[in-house]
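Notes on consecutive records. When two proteins share a document, each keeps its own sequence and its own token line. Never mix them. Below: protein one.
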Amino acid sequence: MLDKNGIAKRIAKEVKDGMYVNLGIGIPTLVANYIPQGINVELQSENGILGMGPFPFEGEEDADLINAGKQTVTLLPGSSIFDSAMSFGMIRAQKVNLTILGAMEVSEDGDIANWKIPGKMVKGMGGAMDLVASAKNIIVAMQQVNKAGQSKLLAKCELPLTGIKCVKKIVTELGVYEIIPGKGFKLLERAPGVSVEDIKKATAGKLIVEGEIPEMSV
């Protein structure tokens, strides 16, 4: 199985040259550390950064320079800082090519729940609602099962929804999936050491398995 860094490393392969990419809170922030060499991308954070770099080395943190998750980050040459109004203007105007989000649940139709668990305190929705409503392409980075061993890839989301039919692809500790509208989760790759049977047991929604499923390289 993949750890959180393994998930981020696999998702980084989805980033293409010239893209503007928004990284959500949690596992997605780690993607900044694994952008392939020679790929020129602009990482955007909805609190007002364009041109975000990888996490700083220990001792080189700047407490005034943070991402949307309040983690210290770095800036690349040519980066810019601006207010949230301009940042959300970029998002709502669909200037962001790829959005990478964490999730608590994803349905087989591509619905996403990633902002609230009823009965628990939350800081707020943040930029999630705008991102899922405006993004051209959404990839979810998440753990496939919760601490109780229950699947988070479901037929229908049980938690409050953030967006409807918006997720295109999912990368978990077990595999890579594409949402096929009206059909379910299509298994594209399996994590090293993970069998198709393991994945079937960890998927509550409809799973599409066609032919030999390759083991992903990370």
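Protein two starts on the next line and is unrelated to protein one.
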Amino acid sequence: MKPMKLPPTVLPLLVAILTCFCGRITFATEALTVASDFEGASVKVIEISEAARSVSFTPGGDAARGWPCWWYFQIKGLTPGETITLRLRGSDSTAPLPAKPAPKPLASSWAMPKQATFSTDGRTWRHSENGTKQDEWMIYTVKPDAASVFVAWGPPYTPATAAKFVSEMSAKSAHAKREDLCRSREGRAVPMLHVMEGDLPKEKRFGVWVQARQHAWESGSSWVAQGFGEWLLSDDADAAWLRQHAEIFLIPIMDIDNTATGNGGKDARPQDHNRDWSAEPHWNEVIAAQRSVGGLIKEGRMDVFLDLHNPAPGDPTFFYILDNDLLKEPMVKLRDRFIELAYGRISKIKPLIPMSNQPKTTGASYHPLWRQISGNWVSMNGNPHTVSLCLETIWNHTNSTTEGYRAVGANLAAAVREYLAERPAR
């Protein structure tokens, strides 16, 4: 049977009809699912709407293990290129104490960055467009070109990330050694980078201690620590000078257990890591850090102690310091000189990271346990020339990204070199 031959005028009409008909076909999409069975994940799903292609959620985590503001999870079942809506509500979880009034839930602003962070591969992190506040909800949209996407409060930095970074730096440079500060109470290794170059004896070297993430939700501080380490082991001549004249200890994550389990860490029971610097610390990380820092103090070479954090949502304060009247000279003069040098360098990357050059004080009016804050403990127990500071890098900003945080760390490391170069050799 011969095929029917259509008149030339019919073919365009059929094409138009088929195009119109196919344009109305709705293809089935996969069901959205949420995964949180991986390191650092935290979420409490309220609702998944297939019709709206949205996920409504609050931060997960155990309130007894710190402020419930951290969220990080994976959404699967996407059609690459489709827009997914994230509907975030603040957590109502609290951790009551016996014979105490019921605590209020944490203010939702701590959990609601202006932009969500997302990644399709778990390595490269980007910001969403600005979220929109609708009553108690913050609404974000993401449009990943993949069948799944990771979404988070900020760029995650897990124990595995820390271990990988420290191992890579150790393999890259003969002057760097991967060590473990200790093992946590839950048995996790706490990676530490130990850096020295050349034959200068330890007793003639400056002592530099840099630690991050005493509060597990403050992921940006770990990226600042990584930026510090990357610059330190770079080919920059100033970095080489610092390696040759100092002994540097760098810990990207202190509160390793809460970071691994997706808990907030801040005000965790029985003690906040950064309120645990007492005569009898609870946390293994603090015990080990106190022991090592104390050793540098006994040797008379605890020169620079830096504790890295992220601040409140709208706080541009860069440094937190102990009140001047609680310190003796030359400590105040040296500390102020370091702040001047650090701010001078890091302010050059504005508007990358907006900040204030006016430090805030952390004495008796700041917190009942002010003496047990790490930077204060080091100031009060350190050498006369010790510079001990808490550095807060703003997180709720367009450029609070892995690149922005690492730039802060690199400039901070360069400031340490510049400051120590002014100090007399031992």
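For the record: The radius of gyration is 26 Å.
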